[in-house]
Recover the amino acids of this structure.
């Protein structure tokens, strides 16, 4: 997969402007030559030789601020990168993926972290760490501890044993500027014990600048473990955000344990955002958490992912949402929202005083339930953003939703995703002409709408004709994200014309055709390139393709 995602200030060259240059070199030259923001991101796997070409292209770019290499880096690649990256004076963010991280690879990475003067953020993901020892992790931790400007660290898929957590905790506790930590605690070799959690909690509690904590795949197996973590959260003076993903096999996250966490949330003085993944949202879990949401003084955002919610649980949660004084954003995935549950939630959305954004993943969304939700969307006074993931948004459901979109006074952003089940095929329903026609009319006439995203709708040429007209004439539309996997050259031409003439359009993201003939792909990309080149306000482009020559994306 080739992935480009950048704002740029000068218009990109057409495909073919660098016909003989290596693909990676062309990509690098595009990013550095056309992007004053200085961001480089590559997701497709490249060889050590291509990494060397990439390094030659970026090593003298004095304004480069962000590098993201999301493919399996080898030690040799890290060595090549190290020489270039450590001499980039403006580099602030580094994101790397490694398949098998070794001590030698960590030494190279640590050298970068410690010596890049402006580095503020590091993200490291490795699929396995069989060649990594405690000594290697100590080297990384020492670098983190002494990096003068480092504010954020994210470590995923390392084996965090108690001994390693002890090493890491020292860095968290003493890093002078550290504001954010994100750890994936999935342990192939064992579970996070109370001893390990105590070390981590003590470090968190004493990191005076820490504003954000994210712990994935944790399993709290004792009351003492939860008490330690909750106590750390409660007493952090600057903590603004918590994200906890509980690996809740066997019901270890009991009501009593969630009560401890909820008390910490309720009394954390600066807490603005919580995200919880906690298995079933049963009555004994819902009560303490809902109370915390309702009374937390600064809470602005909640994200709750649970496989099942009871009627009582949804009643309590809806009441909390409705009366939370500062709540601006909710994201819920709670299984089947029945009619009664949807009524309660819709009432909460409609009357929540400060609510600006809702994101729902729904199953079994009938016409009656969509009507309840749409009424809430239409009359919510401050609502600016909607994101819905549903099994089916065809036919009457789309008509009801479109009416709400058209008349919502403050609505700026819509994101719709049709969740597909692979079997049985009969459940798959494409967006119909009637459904998209009413949605297009809503988009065209929504007074404040700035952003639309349609995912997994498999737009055809006929459907694109309807949507393109809306894009072209929507007065405030600035961003579009579409799946175009079934478009032909004719469909891409319609879309290109809309992009070219949309007066306010600043950003486009497209999943492009993958099953066309090479010539049709080439012709389609030329049409898009012309549109991008002449769009009056366009600032950012993201294209994803599953086939075709990578050189087709040069300059896009």
């Amino acid at each position: 997969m080739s992935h480009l995602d950048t704002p740029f200030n000068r218009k990109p060259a057409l495909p073919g402007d660098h016909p003989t240059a290596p693909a990676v070199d062309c990509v690098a030259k595009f990013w550095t030559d056309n992007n004053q923001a200085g961001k480089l991101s590559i997701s497709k796997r490249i060889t050590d030789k291509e990494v060397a070409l990439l390094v030659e292209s970026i090593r003298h770019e004095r304004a480069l601020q962000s590098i993201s290499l999301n493919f399996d880096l080898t030690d040799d690649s890290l060595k090549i990168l190290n020489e270039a990256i450590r001499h980039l004076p403006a580099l602030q963010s580094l994101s790397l993926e490694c398949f098998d991280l070794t001590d030698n690879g960590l030494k190279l990475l640590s050298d970068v972290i410690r010596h890049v003067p402006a580095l503020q953020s590091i993200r490291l993901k490795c699929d396995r760490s069989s060649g990594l020892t405690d000594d290697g992790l100590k080297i990384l931790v020492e670098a983190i501890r002494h990096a003068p400007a480092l504010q954020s660290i994210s470590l995923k898929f390392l084996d965090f044993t108690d001994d390693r957590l002890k090493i890491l905790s020292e860095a968290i506790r003493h890093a002078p500027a550290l504001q954010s930590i994100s750890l994936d605690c999935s342990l192939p070799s064992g579970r996070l014990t109370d001893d390990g959690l105590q070390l981590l909690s003590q470090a968190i509690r004493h990191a005076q600048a820490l504003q954000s904590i994210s712990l994935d795949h944790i399993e709290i197996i004792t009351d003492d473990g939860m008490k330690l973590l909750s106590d750390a959260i409660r007493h952090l003076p600057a903590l603004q955000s918590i994200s906890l993903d509980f690996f809740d096999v066997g019901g270890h996250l009991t009501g009593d344990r969630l009560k401890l966490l909820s008390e910490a949330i309720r009394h954390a003085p600066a807490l603005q955002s919580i995200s919880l993944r906690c298995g079933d949202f049963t009555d004994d879990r819902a009560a303490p958490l809902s109370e915390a949401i309702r009374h937390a003084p600064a809470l602005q955002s909640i994200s709750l992912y649970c496989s099942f919610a009871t009627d009582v649980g949804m009643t309590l949660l809806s009441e909390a949402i409705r009366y939370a004084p500062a709540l601006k954003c909710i994201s819920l995935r709670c299984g089947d929202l029945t009619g009664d549950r949807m009524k309660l939630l819709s009432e909460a959305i409609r009357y929540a005083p400060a609510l600006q954004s809702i994101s729902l993943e729904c199953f079994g969304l009938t016409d009656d339930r969509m009507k309840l939700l749409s009424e809430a969307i239409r009359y919510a006074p401050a609502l600016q953003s909607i994101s819905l993931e549903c099994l089916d948004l065809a036919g009457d459901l789309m008509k009801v939703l479109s009416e709400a979109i058209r008349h919502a006074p403050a609505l700026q952003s819509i994101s719709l995703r049709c969740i597909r089940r692979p079997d049985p095929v009969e459940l798959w329903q494409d967006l119909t002409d009637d459904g998209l026609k009413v949605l297009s009319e809503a988009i065209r006439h929504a007074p404040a709408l700035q952003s639309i995203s349609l995912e997994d709708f498999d737009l055809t040429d006929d459907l694109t004709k309807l949507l393109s007209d809306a894009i072209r004439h929507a007065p405030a539309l600035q961003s579009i994200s579409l799946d175009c996997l079934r478009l032909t050259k004719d469909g891409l031409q319609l879309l290109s014309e809309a992009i070219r003439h949309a007066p306010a359009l600043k950003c486009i993201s497209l999943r492009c055709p993958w099953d066309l003939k090479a010539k049709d792909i080439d012709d389609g990309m030329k049409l898009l390139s012309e549109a991008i080149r002449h769009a009056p306000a366009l600032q950012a482009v993201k294209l994803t393709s599953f086939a075709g020559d990578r050189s087709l994306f040069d300059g896009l």
Notes: The two ends are 15 Å apart (CA to CA). The chain has 18 helices and 21 strands. Confidence is low (pLDDT under 50) at residues 1-36, 421-429, 546-550.
